[in-house]
């Protein structure tokens, strides 16, 4: 296992009063063979065929591990008591070059920023703020255990979204997107915002790559 996955099954589990036994528990990990790969949550496989993911990640030459962090926390805290958590953690199989926390969502561009419920008029946070909050509480919980993550040279909190109203590559679809200012701006939006403990918040709209 990578050093981060070892941290989860030893330090994290022990901190919350759980003895991790491989015979009765499993840490869901995948190591993609491809340099560029797509991932999605709540699927039998984390890595998805091209065109079917939510996040597109391009790794460097080093092998990486994708850890289903949300599934892990459910095993530690229980289904009914699971705290808010991002979907995945991606780290090198060997070394400490980077740690990437990744929150994924599929939604319409209308719900990225704060919006009003059509029927009730109640204002709600958009998916962007929700993702930022989930990533932040994940970071804070990791650091409530120890400063283990400080060993990573680059620490990134990535929000990946796939827009349901951004479809098709035909002339009509491209023309429609050109007049949708929200989609147009989201595709070109590049955050470089600080989160706690040196993590940098970034965002990618499918199918833009995030390069580790």
Folded structure, characterized:
By secondary structure, the chain is of the alpha+beta class. It has one domain (3-211). Helices cover 27% and strands 27% of the residues. The chain has helices spanning 3-15, 69-77, 127-145, 171-178, 181-188, and strands at residues 29-30, 36-39, 47-48, 55-58, 64-68, 88-92, 98-107, 115-116, 123-124, 154-163, 193-194, 200-205, 209-211. β8 (115-116) and β9 (123-124) form a beta hairpin.
Outline the secondary-structure elements.
Elements: H1 3-15, E1 29-30, E2 36-39, E3 47-48, E4 55-58, E5 64-68, H2 69-77, E6 88-92, E7 98-107, E8 115-116, E9 123-124, H3 127-145, E10 154-163, H4 171-178, H5 181-188, E11 193-194, E12 200-205, E13 209-211
Helix and strand composition category:
alpha+beta
Head-to-tail CA distance between termini:
20 Å
Mean pLDDT: 89
The largest β sheet comes out as: 7 strands, mixed
Strand adjacency order, main sheet: 1-5-6-7-10-12-11
Strand % is 25-35%
Estimate percent helicity: 25-40%
Order of helices and strands: HEEEEEHEEEEHEHHEEE
| Number of E-state strands | 13
Indicate the overall shape: globular
Domains (count): 1
Radius of gyration: 18 Å
Flag low-confidence runs: 170-179
Q: How many helix segments?
A: 5
- So what's the oligomer here? single chain
């Amino acid at each position: 296992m990578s050093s981060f996955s070892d941290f989860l099954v030893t330090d994290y589990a022990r901190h919350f009063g759980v003895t991790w036994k491989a015979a009765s528990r499993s840490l869901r990990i995948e190591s993609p063979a491809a340099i560029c790969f797509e991932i999605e949550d709540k699927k039998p496989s984390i890595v998805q065929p091209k065109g079917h993911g939510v996040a597109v990640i391009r790794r460097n030459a080093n092998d990486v591990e994708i850890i289903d962090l949300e599934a892990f926390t459910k095993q530690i805290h229980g289904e009914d008591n699971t705290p808010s958590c991002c979907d995945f953690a991606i780290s090198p199989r060997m070394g400490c070059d980077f740690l990437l926390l990744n929150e994924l969502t599929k939604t319409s561009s209308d719900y990225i920023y704060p919006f009003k419920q059509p029927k009730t008029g109640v204002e709600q946070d958009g998916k962007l703020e929700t993702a930022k909050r989930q990533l932040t509480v994940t970071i804070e919980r990791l650091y409530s255990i120890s400063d283990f993550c400080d060993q990573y040279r680059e620490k990134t909190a990535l929000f990946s979204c796939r827009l349901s109203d951004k479809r098709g590559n035909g002339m009509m679809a491209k023309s429609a997107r050109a007049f949708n200012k929200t989609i147009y701006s989201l595709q070109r939006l590049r955050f470089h915002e600080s989160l706690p403990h040196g993590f940098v918040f970034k965002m990618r709209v499918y199918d833009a790559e995030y390069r580790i």
